[in-house]
Amino acid sequence: MNNKLKKIYELKSELDYRIPLNQGEIKRIKENYIIKNTYNSNAIEGNALTEMETRFVIEINLAVGKKSLKDHLEIRNYYNALLYIETLTNEILSEENIKTVYAILLDGLNCTNKGKYRTTVTSQEMNDLILLNLLLLTELLNLFVNLLISTHSLMGMVEL
Q: What is the pTM of this model?
């Protein structure tokens, strides 16, 4: 894995040398990423807004006629979750951060489960799925967070 990271850093340095990006270009790339990420992530979950409508909801805070409030909230919440995650760049990932992201995603949509673990099977899940005990889930999540933290310290971050 270290060889792949080394190669990424080498390619990034070469890219920076060949075409240095100014702050306006970096801002445009990030904005485009946010729009496309928000649109695609919500579209696969059945959101009816188009990519252009997603852009209007995010950039202009415009409600699109004949589209549900739920669709608008999903777009707005996903966007707000991405903004929150960006504020965490210098923090150590924690279970609380993950629950906060989940709470942001459900804001105005599902107040009873906001910031909590799911305890029921949804219609999209397999019938034979065995739900984890909440204590086991917390333990596994903490193991996952610790793994990410230790991996992050080995890998570092690649920025635009």
A: 0.72
